[in-house]
Amino acid sequence: MNTAIKILLAEDDVNLGKVLSTYLEAKGYSVKHANNGEMAFELFCTNEFDICLVDVMMPLKDGFTLTREIRKMDKNIPIIFLTAKNFQEDMIEGLSIGGDDYITKPFSMEVLLARLQALLRRTRQEIEQQTCPVYQLGNTLFDVNSRSLTFNNKETRLTTREAEVLVLLIQKKNDVLEREFALKRIWGDDSYYNARSMDVYITKLRKYFKDDSSVQIINVHGIGFKLVV
Questions:
Q1: Which fold has domain 134-228?
Q2: Which residue, among 138, 213, 133, has the nearest Cα to 167 in the 3D structure?
Q3: Fewer CB within 10 Å, N- or C-terminus of the chain?
């Protein structure tokens, strides 16, 4: 199956890019490497990819700018940031503009591969295998397969992680979704940084439902969140 998976690698460190490409190709993936943001965007526009690995600090066009441009064209493709910066603000910004995961350098190849495979697995299997692909949430329709919310004939496309969080909230509709459970289910662990990531996605989901007064996502102090419909 991996032979069909195409990866866009945007990494300005030529040596690291070569090492990553060689490693991932040895695992059966197809990799196209760009060493700056402009080249990466050109590759994205002229090729089909299944996932993007994006370095934050790149010449000509940084990773955040690249991600914003990619998201204008494709709301669904998974994006993992690679960065040497470990600042909370950068992590929050990266997730807010549509990133799905965030790995801080230096990292092991095995960890990167595991995160990549987990994100692809969730993207391709978990959401698509929902037994009820369309949910009526108040006055809003949520189509799981297309990851879209429709309210008053206006459609909003969600990122992979936004859709995953919303699916878990729906599964616990009008009940409490425990923070620890959600973190381990989606991110694999309940670390501080992953918890902050989830808060970002909850905030974005609230924004999407702000015009539908029949839907609320409330905090349950010290426990988690509740989708009230």
A1: Arc Repressor Mutant, subunit A (1.10.10)
A2: 133
A3: N
The domain 2-126 is placed in CATH, from the list 3.40.50.1110, 2.60.40.150, 3.40.50.2300, 3.30.70.360, at: 3.40.50.2300
Beta bridge partners of 156: 149
2-126 and 134-228 agree in CATH topology: no
User: If 0-12 CB within 10 Å is exposed, 13-18 middle and 19+ buried, where does residue 207 land?
Assistant: exposed
Q: What is the pLDDT of residue 36?
A: 96
Share of the chain above pLDDT 70, in %: 93
| DSSP per position, 142-162 | EETTTTEEEETTEEEEPPHHH
Q: How does 138-175 read in b/e, with b if 16+ C-beta sit within 10 Å?
A: eebebbbebbbbebeeeebebbbbbbbbbbbbbebeee
Strand partners, 150: 141, 155
Question: 150-200 pLDDT, tens per residue?
Answer: 999 999 999 888 998 999 999 889 999 988 888 888 887 778 888 888 899
Please tell me whether the overall predicted TM-score, pTM, comes out greater than 0.85 for this model: no
Q: Which amino acid is at 50?
A: D
Structure tokens at 153: 């004939």
Q: Where are the domains of the chain?
A: 2-126, 134-228
Give the tokens for residue 184: 């381990």
